[in-house]
Amino acid sequence: MTIPEISVITTVFNCKKFIRESIESILAQTFREFEYIIVDDGSDDGTTEIIKEFASADDRIFPVYLEKNIGRVSSLNNALSISKGKYIAIQDADDVSLPDRLFVQHDFLEKNPEYLLTGSNIHIINETGEIISTPVRPENDNELKFSLLFKCTFANPSLMYRSSVITDHKLRYEEEFNHAEDFRLITIINSLGKVHNLKETLILHRRHGDNNSIVNFDKLNTGSTVIVKENFLQLGIEISEERALRIRKLFSSKGIDKEHVFEDIRFLFLAVKEFQTRYRTVKNREVIRTLKRMLKWLGKRNLVLKPEYLALYNSILTYYLKETFILKN
């Protein structure tokens, strides 16, 4: 087999219910020049037999069968170490790639060599495949760089990135950020160059009770909080893990810490202004959206009873109106 354009990587542990549909969605891609590395991380539920069935029928599949479970991070790195493609595409074992996914992402990266990584919009589906939501994500580089300060705004199973960025910078998924390893790698790649999120919907992301983000939420949140702290340091701003966690909760609508809301929003406002000083673009709608949310987070009652809240509100409002005017012009 000639050197493939794309290495598609799937790591799987006990996903018999969905792995067949996931593999079929890759084999049905309109773009054909790929190798498909499937790391079976010690499955014992019948997943292995399904992988062997597909591997025996299609020589683009390169299965790796591990005798014992070593975890997603090590499995991903195992796949990276043997991948040969110009690009790496992530395919989760319970998700479905729509037929043009590889073609569209490959085409974008080929035509835009300054970009290191791209994702796409997704449909979220339930266990039976019914679409339950279609979140809209930031698209351009500056909007994504702003959003990535606070959260992983990419859908991980939609990722395709240049393998050269991995080899040139000796990158790997990091065990220290287990369950937030994707956010960590995306953040590093983002710091090295431009990233993009395609507006096309290319992935059906399955939500069910065994999703990593649900089962391992506490570990994911802890790792993500450390990443947020480091992201702010890249901007030249120090932030405690406690504040990073509170700000992540604000952005995910998981609650406002009333005791610290004034300090946190004042801090966030300073961070927004610092980011805009460095990266201002006339099209950063994520900054506009965040400023608007900050005005709401201060609370109407506080504006009436606490002069410092009103002063901060007016400062944010003035900045918001200025940025909105720039956006429109």
Structural features, described:
By secondary structure, the protein is α/β, with parallel strands linked by helices. It folds into two domains: 6-217, Spore Coat Polysaccharide Biosynthesis Protein SpsA, Chain A; 256-328. It has 14 helices and nine strands. The protein has helices spanning 19-27, 47-57, 72-82, 101-111, 141-147, 163-168, 181-192, 212-215, 217-234, 241-251, 261-279, 285-297, 300-305, 307-328, and strands spanning 6-12, 34-40, 61-65, 87-90, 96-97, 115-125, 131-133, 160-162, 194-206. Strands 1, 2, 3, 4, 5, 6, 7, 8 and 9 form a nine-stranded mixed β-sheet that branches.
Notable traits:
nine-stranded mixed beta sheet; alpha/beta; single chain; 49% helix; 9 strands; Spore Coat Polysaccharide Biosynthesis Protein SpsA, Chain A; 2 domains; 329 residues
In brief:
With 329 residues, the protein is α/β, with parallel strands linked by helices. It has helices spanning 19-27, 47-57, 72-82, 101-111, 141-147, 163-168, 181-192, 212-215, 217-234, 241-251, 261-279, 285-297, 300-305, 307-328; strands at residues 6-12, 34-40, 61-65, 87-90, 96-97, 115-125, 131-133, 160-162, 194-206.
Percent helix: 40-55%
Mean pLDDT: 92
- Going by CATH, the architecture of the largest domain would be Alpha-Beta Complex
Shape: elongated
Largest sheet: 9 strands, mixed
Q: Would you tell me the structural class of the helices and strands?
A: alpha/beta
Give the terminus-to-terminus CA distance: 52 Å
CATH superfamily of the largest domain: Spore Coat Polysaccharide Biosynthesis Protein SpsA, Chain A
Radius of gyration: 21 Å
Q: Count the helices. How many?
A: 14
Number of domains: 2
What's the level 1 CATH class of the largest domain?
Answer: Alpha Beta
Number of β-strand runs: 9
**Unreliable runs, pLDDT <50, ≥5 residues?**
213-217
Q: Report the order of strands and helices.
A: EHEHEHEEHEEHEHHEHHHHHHH
The CATH topology of the largest domain is Spore Coat Polysaccharide Biosynthesis Protein SpsA, Chain A
Strand content: 15-25%
